Amino acid sequence: xxxxxxxxxxxxxxxxQVLHGIDCKIQEGEFxxxxxxxxxxxxxxxRLIAGLEKITVGTIKIDDREVNNLEPAERDIAMVFQTYAxxxxxxxxxxxxxxxxxxxxxxxxxxxxxxxxxxxxxxxPLLKRKPKELSGGQRQRVAMGRCIVREPKLFLFDEPxxxxxxxxxxxxxxxxxxxxxxxxxxxxxxxxxxxxxxTLADRLIVMDKGFTAQIGSPLxxxxxxxxxxxxxxxxxxxxxxxxxxxxxxxxxxxxxxxxYLELPGKGLPEHIDNKxxxxxxxxxxxxxxxxxxxxxxxxxxVEKLGADTLVHGFTLENNIAMTVSLDGIQHFxxxxxxxxxxxxxxIHIFESESGKRLN
Amino acid sequence: MIQQxxxxxxxxxxxxxxxxxxxxxxVFFFWPASQALYQSVLQEDPFGLASTFVGLDNFIDxxxxxxxxxxxxxxxxxxxxxxxxxxxxxLLLAVMANRVLWGGAIYKTLLIWxxxxxxxxxxxxxxxxxxxxxxIIAYFLRVMEYDWNHALNTGQAMFLVxxxxxxxxxxxxxxxxxxxxxxxxxxxxxASAIDGASPFKRFWxxxxxxxxxxxxxxxxxxxxYSFFETFGVVHAITGxxxxxxxxxxxxxxxxxGVLGLDIGSSAAQSVILMSIVIFLTVIxxxxxxxxxxx
Lengths: 359, 294
Prior knowledge:
The structure holds 2 protein chains of 2 kinds.
Chain A: E1 4-13, E2 16-26, E3 31-35, H1 42-50, E4 57-62, E5 65-66, E6 77-80, H2 92-102, H3 107-120, H4 136-148, E7 154-158, H5 166-183, E8 187-191, H6 194-200, E9 203-208, E10 211-216, H7 218-223, H8 228-233, E11 240-247, E12 252-254, E13 260-262, E14 275-280, E15 285-287, E16 295-304, E17 308-315, E18 321-327, E19 337-342, E20 348-351
Parallel strand pairs in A: 3-8, 3-9, 6-7, 7-8
Antiparallel strand pairs in A: 1-2, 1-4, 4-5, 9-10, 11-12, 11-14, 12-13, 14-20, 15-19, 16-17, 16-19, 17-18
Chain B: H1 13-39, E1 42-44, E2 51-53, H2 57-64, H3 66-99, H4 104-112, H5 119-130, H6 136-143, H7 154-182, H8 186-194, H9 199-210, H10 212-228, H11 231-237, H12 249-259, H13 263-291
Helix pairs in contact in B: 1-13, 2-13, 3-7, 3-10, 5-7, 5-11, 7-10, 8-9, 10-13, 12-13
């Protein structure tokens, strides 16, 4: 088990700066997921850790040893590639044994390790086959097996499940989680899929345009997003935003002439002058009687997904698009007026200009 | 791949469109080939006025002729040398070109140029450069106190024809190797780097095996090239000499037939060459295309 730390990592390709100073300390046995939309620099960050790209500024340490100028081979890491990158001309056994052979390990030890890993990943009957004779999920497991046998300090995953179909992805996600619980190897996992991120991560690094938008546990990131980017990116369907004004000494926000929402406790008296944006997740709307309504929506499209129903509509007062998620199957016609209440502690308040969280 | 089926309304047009290719094949391949087959069982009198059917006598003569058997060995040595020297050099250049970051396009273009040079011109070019009285390379060799004269020294003559033939073929091999290298996913190389393989080891354990389809294809192409197309090089540089040292089969066909006017024997030799190329083509299609896959 190992620790790793990223200190002020910057990376430029020519004139284009893709990473603007990433800091993170990774604990022993921790499963870190780097999450972000495509082009946010998450894969680049992983390749910097692997040593496949050179760092422009900053320091990467593995077990307190600076690895900036070490070759990938000398860093004692293993990586699962998006395309699996299995050696097509070698059998599965040789694919897994390759790294060990290069390290001049004894034949018995290699055999022991490969069979051991194959056992864990249920690959034993496939060891004599070539990669092209395996299915996507099996190849994925071989790619992981190749990493396990090495017993590396650090496990790196570069969107390993994105080439699998939806069902297999769920299954492999579970297997990766189990594997980590069993072996407890410090891991860094890159993905753009937030479900993967939420289920796998001990801690999340949410990235946006080469900056870290937030680092925290999945629930922390979900419940207290640090800014509007994270708030909008995490959660599906995405959080609803509306412009608002703090009033009543910061204890409530006004979202339209007739509508206001109360904030928990003393509210935000110190930000009384700031322009703010309020965010409410679709699942935090509670349907109620018209008399108690805090927000009224006029429905537009209703999507019945079985487990829940998504109502797309517009606020009656100032016509802002909103999505509401309700449990179970609910029937509404278009242009129905619905009334909702919102629990005060589920309201997120952000500064309008910077997008920073205020409450 | 999506294949579009073209439908012609005119019944004659499709035949007209393939006619040039068919006519060229018939006139320049089938006709001479059938002529060679026919002539190989005939013996012609010195003045070309009459010919007699002699069965397989021409072939028996050839295989008991020491000069021919020597030429067979020479050709074998020559073609193996040309194939491997040109392939090794082009693989080396392709690997380097694949890494070059700056000026890669210029480098690649320059490397492809020699292929535009006709074999005969290539022969003449190197003949002049190595000419023992006027050649600049021969001059430098003399400065370094190495006595170069490929007109007299059999080893030097052989070296020069191999060198000139291989030089011209490097471009062709280079393109194929470069394409082959491009088709290897970079993630494989990265995976093996992370697995701890040195660049040298990466090449031998990953890149080279993955190039094997390209390599086998090029071996066949290069052997065929060195058997047939190198005629111009030999003709320009050594004329098969000195002492039959560079008398490769295809040159001997020309020498015996055109200069010696022994049409029967020359035709029989062509038939043998023809069967060699047919054999190589069969290997190419049957064996290599199927087996060399990973």
